[in-house]
């Protein structure tokens, strides 16, 4: 039986030491943790890596742990190529799993270079930013188990509007109970990447109405601080990436997100090494904002983080570092009103670095 056919009942507390992994040895891009209280188990989702899952194909795999230190080898819970009439089979980025209405919903981003979209940036931006656009967006799949298998509900299209080049869709439920998908609208299509939100139907698979603009990447005023005076800083990319929403105790709405700082190399056009984890706050608590940008929490080629609570009540953030050949890094954090503060990196769990 293939590993992605396993169910939650297959988790065993008698896993041998040779079956266990630790974060420094675990390929881990765009990490997302579900802390499942009934089983006291952490489920850590990421893009499938056949070198550790043993299963080929674009999809999603999950590691499991009781203590955030020792993790089982991953099993695959979703494979794009197995989905009926799926519109794309590349990507498999930024998987998230959310409990909703008695089932589990997987969001992950796919793309298809054979389905072109209109070119976005106008001529004045110049090469290399006159890049062809193609279909990219987050799909919604559902399962009765945290271990899948997850099945795409509508294989004909992404969940956000298909004419938009988007990625990294995440679930947000507002105080009235209305679900939303919040996603990044690609700078490849917009030049200045944006965060947007769109209402979801109760099945989380259909959208309602038009997207709502939240903010653009260049709203973060610090993004060009490392450019010396006299050096142009107006050129793209201005990237939005990895949103995750979190309600603070004072009622504000906090969004973790990632971007690239600009530096002197290439007048700020180089991406390598400049990935950062930052956040924004809507003090009103409304998804529409206005959003106030805060300074980066973690630099050093780190990002795409998410917040979760441990079983003993600590607030934690996991992100990946570096961007290429990424590994998971864990931080204990705290909220002071709507200010998010790092307490310390959990080097005993993630190996430091």
Give helix % range. under 10%
Question: How many DSSP helices?
Answer: 3
Beta-strand segment tally:
22
- CATH superfamily heading: Glycosyl hydrolase domain, family 43
Could you tell me how far the N terminus lies from the C terminus, measured between alpha carbons in angstroms? Answer: 38 Å
Largest sheet, if any? Answer: 4 strands, antiparallel
Strand percent estimate: 35-45%
Query: What is the total domain count?
Result: 1
Subunit arrangement of the protein: single chain
Average residue-wise pLDDT: 88
Unreliable residue runs: 1-15, 121-128, 264-270
Major β-sheet strand ordering: 2-3-4-6
* Overall CATH class: Mainly Beta
- Shape by Cα distribution: globular
The rounded Rg comes to: 20 Å
Order of helices and strands: EEEHEEEEEEEEEHEEEEEEEEEEH
- What structural category arises from helix and sheet content? mainly beta
CATH topology heading = Tachylectin-2, Chain A
Instruction: Label the CATH architecture.
Output: 5 Propeller
Task: Provide a short characterization of the protein structure.
The chain has helices at 50-53, 187-190, 347-350; strands at 20-21, 32-36, 41-47, 59-65, 71-72, 75-79, 90-100, 103-117, 133-143, 151-152, 166-173, 179-185, 194-200, 207-216, 241-247, 253-260, 275-282, 292-293, 303-309, 315-321, 327-336, 339-345. It is mostly beta strands.
């Amino acid at each position: 039986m293939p590993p992605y056919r396993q169910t939650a009942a297959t988790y065993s507390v008698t896993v041998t030491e040779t079956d266990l992994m630790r974060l420094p040895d675990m390929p881990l891009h765009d990490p997302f943790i579900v802390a499942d209280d009934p089983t006291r188990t952490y489920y850590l989702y990421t893009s499938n890596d056949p070198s550790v899952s043993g299963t080929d194909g674009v999809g999603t795999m999950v590691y499991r742990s009781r203590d955030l230190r020792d993790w089982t080898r991953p099993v695959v819970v979703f494979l794009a190529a197995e989905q009926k009439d799926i519109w794309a089979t590349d990507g498999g980025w930024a998987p998230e799993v959310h409990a909703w209405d008695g089932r589990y919903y997987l969001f992950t981003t796919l793309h298809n270079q054979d389905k072109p979209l209109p070119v976005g940036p106008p001529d004045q931006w110049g090469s290399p930013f006159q890049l062809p656009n193609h279909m990219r967006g987050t799909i919604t799949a559902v399962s009765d188990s945290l271990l899948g298998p997850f099945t795409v509900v509508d294989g004909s299209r992404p969940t956000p509007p298909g004419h938009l080049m988007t990625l990294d869709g995440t679930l947000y439920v507002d105080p009235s109970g209305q679900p939303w998908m919040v996603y990044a609208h690609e700078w490849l299509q917009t030049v200045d990447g944006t965060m947007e939100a769109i209402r979801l139907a109760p099945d989380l698979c259909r959208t309602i109405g038009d997207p709502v603009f939240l903010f653009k990447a260049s709203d973060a005023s610090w993004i060009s601080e490392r450019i010396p005076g006299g050096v142009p800083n107006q050129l793209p990319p201005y990237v939005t990436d990895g949103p995750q929403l979190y309600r603070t105790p004072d009622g504000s709405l906090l969004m973790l997100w990632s971007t690239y700082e600009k530096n002197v190399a290439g007048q700020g056009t180089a991406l390598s090494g400049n990935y950062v984890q930052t956040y924004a706050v809507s003090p009103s608590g409304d998804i529409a904002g206005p959003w106030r940008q805060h300074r980066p929490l973690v630099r050093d080629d780190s990002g795409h983080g998410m917040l979760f609570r441990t079983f003993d009540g600590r607030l934690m953030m996991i992100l990946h570092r570096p961007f290429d050949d990424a590994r998971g890094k864990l931080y204990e954090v705290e909220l002071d009103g709507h200010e998010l503060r790092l307490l310390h990196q959990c080097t005993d769990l993630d190996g430091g670095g």
